[in-house]
Design goal:
Blueprint (H helix, E strand, L loop, with lengths): L11 H7 L2 H4 L3 H17 L5 H20 L11 H13 L1 H5 L6 H37 L4 E6 L2 E7 H25 L2 E2 L15 H7 L4 E2 L3 H6 L2 H28 L6 E2 L18 H25 L12 H24 L2 E2 L1 H8 L6 H10 L4 H17 L9 H7 L5 H7 L2 H6 L9 H14 L2
Parallel strand pairs: 3-4
Antiparallel strand pairs: 1-2, 5-6
Bound molecules: arginine.
The site of arginine has 10 residues, from helix 7.
Length: about 450
């Protein structure tokens, strides 16, 4: 492709060291789409005749079909996906093929292909997030009114509805979907026409190319267009955050699936056994997702670090952008799909969850609220209830089983009827009816809100 300047054949070691086609071949569909749009711009500018354009288009489509079918022969000697396709085209159709690269560089070509590819992937990931949200809402809807303990510091804190816990993740995923959509919006600018760095003296209709490729706008600075990869970093950042959320969900599921908690039943299809211990049923999917979050973070750090020291504009370092992005995209798409399937087949063990939530200590805060209702300042109420908790624990009895005299001695507000009512789980949850709190009515409303939002 650049034989004019060189007298010696390239070192085999350099060929192996520099090739990227083993990784970037998967941009071929976008490369071909971009090349056809570019050829049409060359036709409009009078660089290509109608016949030449038709030959280029047919040749590129034929190459695409062969790659689809797995019969195309890739050559590492041709470095990357762009040169493989262009050289195959010229081999097939001759002279018109050699005109295709007019007013184009691999620098704007790869900027285009990568954006086209990531626009598609961002859309697919967005869809995957929605599917996972639907699975979470579905699981919540299959257990209406189910109660489990909510935790802080991994210590039982207060009772919540199972649906409330799951919908917390639905909210997080909603923001993740928003970040992916934002990243997609910002990458939606067409870079072709920027050339290697400074555009070209051959003027092409960039707006028409953008329109053909479905971009909402064209890039407005040729140096920026070939130099930056912030669009890829931004998507990796969004995926890292999404991974963090899925990893926390994983951690909850792993705990819930343990014998100690025993809250969730994962299907046989979504668990694995042990080669040694016959009794084991392991939540591997959640563990793998939690583990792979490390790679999502690593890929983001990798690309940020690759980019940070580069003078404008294109530097070959930037070829390292694809491997990490492909890895994160593949990883997250697979994770989203398998999580949705796993949750669709999962069930809450309502009895176990309820038994754990039935611990009267979880309503100690509510008891302090009763004192507040009787006019006791909250800090004082907190201390009174703290002493009652210590008393119950010293006698090894549940908090609500202390004799009436003990409650009355602590405060006259704590009469037997108040105590009886305070320790009813159902009443306690119904009382949590401020916006965003887990009363059964609120949670039911939120479940239907999400059901229609996610349709
Ligand atoms: N394979 C290269 C990459 O992915 C394509 C751009 C090459 N440009 C160049 N000037 N060598 O970055």
């Amino acid at each position: 492709m650049w034989k004019g300047r060189f007298q010696e054949e390239q070192s085999d070691l350099l060929k192996a060291y520099g090739e990227s086609v083993s990784i970037d071949w998967r941009l071929y569909r976008h490369d071909i789409r971009g090349s056809i749009a570019h050829a049409r711009a060359l036709l409009r500018a009078g660089v290509l005749t109608g016949e030449e354009f038709t030959a280029i288009e047919a040749g590129l489509l034929e190459i695409g079909a062969e790659i689809d079918a797995g019969t195309f022969e890739w050559s590492r000697d041709l470095e990357d996906v762009h040169m493989n396709i262009e050289s195959a085209l010229t081999r097939r159709i001759g002279a018109p093929g050699a005109k295709l690269h007019t007013a184009r560089s691999r620098n704007d070509q790869v900027a285009l292909d990568f954006r086209l590819y990531l626009r598609d992937e961002a859309l697919a990931i967005w869809g995957g997030i929605r599917a996972l949200q639907r699975a979470l809402v579905g699981l919540a809807a299959r257990h209406p009114g189910a109660i489990l303990p909510g935790y802080t510091h991994l210590q039982r804190a207060q009772p919540v509805l199972f649906g409330h816990h799951l919908l917390a993740y639905v909210e997080m995923l909603e923001r993740d979907a928003g970040r992916v959509a934002d990243a997609r919006e910002r990458m939606d600018a067409m870079p072709l026409g920027s050339g290697a760095i400074a555009g070209s003296t051959i003027i092409l209709d960039r707006a028409a190319v953008a329109e053909e490729l479905g971009f909402s706008r064209v890039t407005t600075n040729s140096m920026d267009a070939v130099a930056d990869r912030d669009f890829a970093c931004e998507l990796l950042a969004a995926l890292a955050m999404l991974g963090m959320h899925i990893s926390r969900l994983s951690e909850d599921l792993i705990l819930w699936a343990s014998a100690e908690f025993g809250f969730i039943e994962l299907s046989d299809r979504h668990t694995t056994g042990s080669s040694l211990m016959p009794q084991k049923k392991n939540p591997d999917i959640a563990e793998l997702a939690r583990g792979r979050t490390g790679r999502l973070y690593g890929n983001l750090m990798s690309l940020l670090t690759t980019m940070k020291g580069l003078p404008l504009t294109y530097n070959r370092d930037m070829q390292e952008d694809k491997q990490v992005v492909f890895d994160s995209v593949d990883n997250i798409r697979a994770t989203l799909a398998i999580f949705a399937e796993m949750l669709d087949a999962a069930a809450l063990r309502e009895d176990r969850a309820l038994a754990a939530a039935g611990d009267p200590l979880l309503l100690a805060t509510d008891l302090a609220d009763r004192l507040v209702e009787g006019g006791v300042p909250f800090r004082e109420a907190h201390e009174i209830v703290g002493r009652l908790v210590a008393l119950a624990q010293s006698r090894n009895v549940p908090l609500n089983s202390l004799p009436a005299e003990d409650f009355l001695a602590a405060s006259p507000v704590l009469d037997p009827e108040t105590i009886r009512k305070n320790f009813q789980l159902k009443t306690a949850l119904e009382a949590r009816r401020s916006i965003g709190a887990p009363s059964p009515a609120n949670v039911a409303r939120e479940i239907s809100r999400w059901e229609s939002a996610l349709k």
